[in-house]
Amino acid sequence: MVDNERIKQQMIQCIASQVKENQLQNLVVSFIKEKDNFHFAHLAILHHDAFEGKSAEIVRLAAAIQLLILSFDMLDDLEDLDNMKEPWMKINPSIALNAATMIYTLSQKLILSLSSPYRIQILDAFTQFSLQAMEGQHIDLENSILTEEECIKMMKNKSGSLIALASVSGMLLAGANEEKVETYSYQIGIAAQIENDFRDLFNPNKNDISAQKKSLGFLYLQKKCNEHAMDIIEGFKSEKSVEAYFGGYKKFSNKLLNSGTVHYLNVMKQIAVNKATNLINELPIKQDQIERLKAVLITG
Fold it and tell me: What pTM was estimated for this model as a whole?
């Protein structure tokens, strides 16, 4: 498996060779050096290996994917005005926005620099899934979702599309083209987004329900299935703090558990995981590679 340092160095090399303005180059390189999570790059490598790819350009592809993800992370933070600890949130937002759009553009230029005969297919996947992710982000920012179905579609586009981008790109570089990879990537993205929403429920510093963000958890509570759900909704309508209305965050957490929200989110996540597992099991690849995919995507 390619280590993070090789991916990071390839990203920095791309910036150094393409960005001539010294301050901008140094700024972007500083962002890259801060990163230690290269999950999407490793998804591409995982799928390249699963379909018996032998391309020496897999690290280059992995770097392009991680540059794209960095640009999306930056844009997401600038749009949501959160994750203030990130270095791009501590500078002039106009400069951060310009850097993000440049990184996004460089990721595509890096794909075009590949010598692989599949580079145009890979670039097409980049643009297709990027557009879907942007559509999902738009719907999330509008916060006008009314139904469970709309929320799942938003999660599929916003989170699933980026997992599909990495997974499909790695597969394409290996010379394969299996539709199930895209389909199960969406389900993995939905499951991951539900897990994020679940963690945020119990995070006093980032609670989407208090902000009345139209997540699956919020939509479930709006059904007012029991008195605990009704009390939570009324509490946030009052605009009082968790401490003032519920008597503390522990009492609020107990209400969430008793409302059925946690059980509901776990069931929805498991449905997505089961769909993904079944599709992975049907892939036309070696059994040991199927097990490896499941170990990373499902168990991991």
Answer: 0.94
